[in-house]
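Weekly puzzle thread! Below is a chain. First person to post its structure in token form gets bragging rights.
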Amino acid sequence: MNEVKRPSFREAAKRGAEANRQTKPAAPPLKPTPAPVKTAEVGAAVESVTITAACGHTITAVPAGKAAFEKARAAKLADLPYPDCIRKAQQEWEAAEQEAARLRREEKAAREPRPKPRLGRLPHGANFNVAWNAESGAWSGSLTVPQGGIYNASVTTGEDSAVFALLTKLDRAYRKLPAEEGAGAIGAAE
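Winning reply:
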């Protein structure tokens, strides 16, 4: 058989890269670089301007361009507070926020934890019946607990705009019912 010697992948990649470089012209720059702005002629004295900031500090500003723009720049600098005053105000604000957060944490730690209600399960055979009432725009339902146990065949009804809220309301109303005393000795009292 005739075996043809093929170039390695590396050699083929090099040849392809060289061919691409030869066929593609160099990309032109996206934007021409602007000429640097001269603030003043060489050897000429640059006059500085003193501006009073909003906080009362004085700022010395060196003119950076045309005189027409310097008035607007001076007015803008006069409306702003001095940079050190800005930093100081920011630090004071952060310190006040941290102090308020520390006080909230201490207050929360000092409070007694709220007791979580430990609700037991409903008795065997308890039944929720829920129906949507389009006229009133609310869910109405009932919780029926069968005869037996400490509650004697109780039925609790209610209405709410949400199903889960209704079920919770019915469960809470059921648990508020008074337990019958001596439920096991009903026949003995007769």
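Puzzle host: Confirmed. Bonus trivia for everyone else. The CA atoms of residues 51 and 75 lie 9 Å apart.
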